[in-house]
Please model this.
Amino acid sequence: MCQLLGMNANVPTDVMFSFAGLATRADEHKDGFGIAFFEDRGLRHFIDHHGARSSPVAELVKRYPIKSDNVIAHIRKATQGRVRLENTHPFVRELWGRYWVFAHNGDLKGYAPRLHGAFRPVGDTDSERAFCWLMQELAKAHASVPSVEELSCTLRELLPQPAAHGTFNMLLSNGQALWAHCSTQLHALQRRHPFGAAHLADEDLSVDFAPLTTANDRVLIVATQPLTHGEAWAALQPGEMQVYVDGETVAAGPCRG
Model:
């Protein structure tokens, strides 16, 4: 299976400490890596079908001063689809004049949704098929970009359909929010004032966030497995979808029928 990393914050935030923790797991997950991060309405997107341990693109990313309020990263251990650039997560599409980014951890068996709109997969993964189907169904459900609340209601109806075919841990963002769906393993962590030191679980690396932050900063990290020791990571439950805006969990209100 693959490994996911997502970040949502209320101010542009450096994600490289968490990305370093993710990259240490690329020895096992060596079939590609990618990261996408929003800068206002723009998006920077780096992918490589080589592992994050050996990829020169990963070295470029590690030196890039990433500051963003919505980030999705992925390291791949292929289950479906060849180890090719076009099969490397995260995937990107445009809808309603906004970029959408998607990454998936899992394996969908016999998943062949009917795709009849503008969203078609370039590669041959179950993940990209699921993303194209989600984009297609969102476009059918709304004429223009709806509120985060409305999008969340629609996604709560849609996500169980691909999830019925297997493991569907996924991250999705359009730069306004980060959506996370858990089938088997996802963990979330919020960092806020008073900030302290964090220590990576898989590497001898630590950082003290206190001098790098303000009292108003909020950062929400989502990962397949906890990336650090000694912080209050919380496991999402199977079938659970969470919505994160400005570094906080958005309470799910009733969806209008």
About this structure: Residues 3 and 184 are 12 Å apart (CA to CA). The chain has one domain: 3-249. The mean pLDDT is 88.
